[in-house]
Write a structure and sequence with these properties.
This protein has 146 residues and is of the alpha/beta class. The chain has a single domain, classed as Protein tyrosine phosphatase superfamily (Protein-Tyrosine Phosphatase, Chain A), CATH 3.90.190.10. The chain has a 5-stranded mixed beta sheet with strand order 1-2-5-3-4, with helices on both faces. Strand 3, helix 2 and strand 4 form a beta-alpha-beta unit. Helix 3 packs across helix 4. The protein starts with a strand and ends with a helix.
């Protein structure tokens, strides 16, 4: 089972999932899975189409919002993550290769609501050090709040 870390109430993050993980995720009460990993990054990753089938098998909502490491601070993927947080039923689990990319997106999408210091602290408690991205997080907090 992939390690699942909590970022805030009803928001979790994990590294790459396998098809076997979806039953456990549903049993934990998670209602939505968001895959932030583009298909084809690695030969051994679960393709999005198969992840969606596994999610639906266990009654989970599934979204594929892929973003590359190079685009993780761009406006479009951050806005998509903010929309997912706002619109999809929680609890929500975001995942990517290591969980880092999903955590970076969450931090930028949530800083207007929670504050930069809070998202940085929550990310660190989950095992993701994002202090070097403070400027990007602050910038997105200001643009989302506007």
């Amino acid at each position: 089972m992939a390690r699942i870390a909590q970022l805030e109430d009803n928001v979790f993050v994990a590294a790459q999932l396998t098809a076997d993980d979806f039953a456990d995720i549903a049993a934990r009460g998670i209602r939505t899975i968001v895959n932030n990993r583009p298909d084809g990054e690695a030969n051994d990753q679960l393709p999005s189409e198969e992840a969606e089938v596994a999610a639906l098998r266990y009654g989970l909502v599934y979204r594929h919002l892929p973003v590359t490491n190079h685009d993780v601070t761009e406006d479009e993927p951050v806005a998509a993550q903010a929309k997912a947080l706002r619109d999809l039923p929680g609890p929500i689990l975001f995942y990517c290769r290591s969980g880092n990319r999903s955590t970076i997106l969450w931090a930028q999408a949530s800083a207007a609501r929670l504050g930069t210091d809070t998202v940085l602290q929550s990310a660190a408690q989950a095992g993701y050090q994002l202090e070097e991205l403070r400027e990007f997080i602050d910038d997105h907090a200001a643009s989302i709040a506007a």
